[in-house]
Automatic annotation (TrEMBL), chain A:
<dbReference type="GO" id="GO:0051301">
    <property type="term" value="P:cell division"/>
</dbReference>
<keyword id="KW-0812">Transmembrane</keyword>
<feature type="transmembrane region" description="Helical">
    <location>
        <begin position="12"/>
        <end position="34"/>
    </location>
</feature>
<dbReference type="InterPro" id="IPR018365">
    <property type="entry name" value="Cell_cycle_FtsW-rel_CS"/>
</dbReference>
<keyword id="KW-1133">Transmembrane helix</keyword>
<feature type="transmembrane region" description="Helical">
    <location>
        <begin position="77"/>
        <end position="97"/>
    </location>
</feature>
<feature type="transmembrane region" description="Helical">
    <location>
        <begin position="158"/>
        <end position="180"/>
    </location>
</feature>
<dbReference type="Pfam" id="PF01098">
    <property type="entry name" value="FTSW_RODA_SPOVE"/>
</dbReference>
<keyword id="KW-0472">Membrane</keyword>
TrEMBL record, chain B:
<keyword id="KW-0997">Cell inner membrane</keyword>
<dbReference type="Pfam" id="PF03717">
    <property type="entry name" value="PBP_dimer"/>
</dbReference>
<keyword id="KW-0645">Protease</keyword>
<dbReference type="InterPro" id="IPR005311">
    <property type="entry name" value="PBP_dimer"/>
</dbReference>
<dbReference type="GO" id="GO:0008658">
    <property type="term" value="F:penicillin binding"/>
</dbReference>
<dbReference type="GO" id="GO:0071555">
    <property type="term" value="P:cell wall organization"/>
</dbReference>
<keyword id="KW-0378">Hydrolase</keyword>
<keyword id="KW-0812">Transmembrane</keyword>
<dbReference type="InterPro" id="IPR017790">
    <property type="entry name" value="Penicillin-binding_protein_2"/>
</dbReference>
Amino acid sequence: MRTSYKISRNIDWVTIGLYGLMVMLGWMNIYAAVYNPEHVTSIFDFTLNSGKQLAWIGTSVVIIVMLFAIDYKAYDSLAYAIYGLVILVLLGTLLLASPIKGSRSWLVITDTVRLQPAEFAKFATALAVSKFMSSINLRQQNWKDQAKLAGMALLPPIIIILQNETGSALVFGAFTLAFFREGMSPLILIIGAVAVFIFILTLLIPQWYLAGALTVLMGAYLWLNFHRLKRHLAMYVGIWAAVLIMVFSVTYFIDNVLQEHQQNRIKVLVDPEVDPLGVGWNVTQSKIAIGSGGFFGKGFLEGTQTKFDFVPEQSTDFIFCTVGEEHGWIGSLVIIGLFIALLMRIVFVAERQRSVFGRTYGYCVASIIFFHFLVNVGMTIGLAPVVGIPLPFFSYGGSSLWSFTILLFILLAIDAHRKLDLGRG
Amino acid sequence: MNYLESRKYVIQAIFIAIGAVYLIKLFYIQVLDDSYKTAAESNAVRPVIQYPFRGLVYDRHGTLLVENTPVYDLMVVPKEAKAIDTLKFCQLVGITLPEYREKIAAAKKYSYVKPSPFLQRLSNTEFAAIQDNLVDFPGFYINARTVRGYPHQSLAHALGYIGEISPLQLEDTTYRGYRQGDYLGISGIEREYEKFLMGKRGVKYTMVNVRGIEKGSFKDGAYDTLSEAGQNLVTTIDLKLQQYGELLMSGGKVGSIVAIEPKTGEILALVSAPYFDPSMLTGKELGNNYMKLLNDPTKPLFNRPLMATYPPGSIFKLAQALIAMQEGVLTPNTGYPCNWSLVKCSHRHEYPANLNIAIENSCNPYFYQVFRSVVNRGKYRNIYEDARQGLDNWNRHIKSFGFASHLNIDLPGEKKGLMPNSQFYDRIYKRDGWKFPTIYSVSIGQGETGVTPLQMANFAATIANRGFYYKPHIVRSVGEKGKPLPEYSVKNYTSVNPRYFPPVIEGMQLVVDKGTGRNASLKHIGVVVCGKTGTVQNPHGKDHSVFIAFAPKDDPKIAIAVYVENAGGGAIAAAPMASLMMEKYLTDTVTTAYRKRWEADMISGGFYKWGK
């Protein structure tokens, strides 16, 4: 690196500002979530999640400095090595770790400190697929390369599913958004959207009725436009068959592949009476907490529902409840606004990269953060199934904060040197 | 801008659309819909679990064996139990102030807002006294629950017991749906039939205001679910027979009695001695009593009929005869000399000119020679290989009687036992390191053999059925009107042709009429008993006394195995006990004076004098 090149001038301070704001707001909300009016403790109390989170934030700053200090080219050249290492650690955890709550996904460092390697698989996979993407052209219909890419993105989630951490594995689906930007056929996104739509319909309507209704609709459409459509009749029949297969396979998947608690997490979306003591209880309590916040909220530390354990996992997966209850709709608006602003900024940063590697990586970062935001906030308000994944930068937890920090700041480190990159893409 | 770059707008649009949808939904639940605020203002929704009635257990005649008795727990919600007169409260429930503080601290540690048990299993009088005054103490309430009750003190091993779910099980996904503090079957029928007995829990959501006063049900009970009672079980046990068996085995005797109805495979009695009162493992004292039983050197918790494997002794000769006949190396008229140079015989008797005489007198040398003819077939020139092949062929036959395998009775913990094959001896003596003289003790049911009392009784039932058995089982049906499982009506045939059974049965009749098993005779009630004694050599002490039998001969209604440890010969304790059991079952009573005297001798252990 040339010494005359001042990276500080090229660092994207907007993103850093958004990051800092979110982490600090997260820390305050964690304190509010564990705050006990009977037994007031300091926000710095290290026995509480808020105190520990401060330690995680402190170490995150150290990580950020290190990420900028490392030669920025290393992220490109070492991408596969990092990916391979993470795969090995994932496999090692799967085979060697003792299960915690039925999941073989934790590396126990001390009694209180333990890490979840699955969190770090996200940035490692993002680096590897970006590296691979910079060496191929997704638009060219080279199925071998496409298969390699898919395999690369699918290997970590398969191991993670075997660790019994299905929630973390789903996140890898977010890569499709980045692939779309780099030339993947939009058909895949559309099929995905249709699949989700049918999925929701199958929850609401018994499968035979749904199949019947779709057949009638399709038939009527073809009948009325027969002359115009007859040339492509085979294609329409094919679409019809595919949709029906989807309807039946979705029902089959829910009833036969998913475990009962996983079925409940999905069914509770349309019927809160499912599993009223388990996941139904969580969603009901979460909605009560958020709903009771009103427009302006009850005020910092004034929440009643998110205190104690009405809402489970309130400082980790359900941290958004604290925001909703204590800061009302205005608070929700600020948090959601911050996320959208951050996502927009990341897209902006990604687009100004000269290398395919940097740009793809930027979109991977945006996709992963977006997926977490989508599912986490969605589940607290009953719009997404209850999947135990954290809200980036807000949820309590070292593995999660570190991994999102690394994910984001590798992008900023690459971005800070973008003018040195001659560009390949 | 190339056309791919324009895709960034699609992606940005997705981001913004989701953000907008979420904000609209949030605006709806936070600003427009008031019902969440009402729910929050009533401060607490308390889920009250509605425990279902656990299924009852009956004997074959409809006598109740296991019931539910109500107990009352005093529950506390620490958050609501603040402004109370602590001193008055302590007086009411009869605890000291430090005890109170300790219990509250423990409850707070579990949860500040969720109910946890403050005092468990209140007696009826305590409950009555506390219930009426509880209105003054917000945060406290009574939760009614049931524990298992036993109208009779019998059958503890088979019934099993229930206990609180362990932290390990709570983390195990096979126990999903159970919560902390739930009870589940730990052993016996309670465990085997847990999913039928447990029923389905319900939950009632009650809204409680700041002062801990109930404000009715949450959302008009829209989320409430009713509990569903567990299903009742009808067992195959004859309680009177079971109690009689336990009486005979009382006074510190160690052993088992297993009685089976041959026509169905239903277990009539399953006695494991020493035994204990099932109510020891219920209620407050469960933990203490369990440790007491666990540390007892006579191991009362050990379910001997299923778990103890013993050498079967001379009853095994019946199986040897059946297999030899099937293999064509023995006929009912085969005679062998009672040659004491091969193996000692227990007593002097007439020349065993045929199978009947040999069985009647339990002649050891005879069956030594029978087994030798099964193992050494002369099919291979190498004598070692000949013995290997012969033994493996024998092993296939013996396993078809249910030996050395699980009979898959509907109770946990059943042991397989042991019947040797060539691999087994190869491991001990190396290949070609053993031949018939090495293993001869198997011929008379000693040596490397292990059989559970259940397998012995099943063996008796198999002979009674002339060649097949029904899977022994202890639960006839789930629900009073339920049907037995289809697998219980499958005839399990042995590999021995049914036509070879009658000669053996004739021999068993002779055993009881004038042979070693005369003490088992039921002539005085006109019933022909077929049986076989066994005396198992015990290197650690006195011989074990064994007897298997079935009766009546031509229409068997009961097959039985009795195994009494350290009681001496089979004729001494096991045979008379078996006959008393059969008499009790067939005539419902034991009356005549000399039979009463025997009964007393069995109960008191007076039979020990008999051998002298």
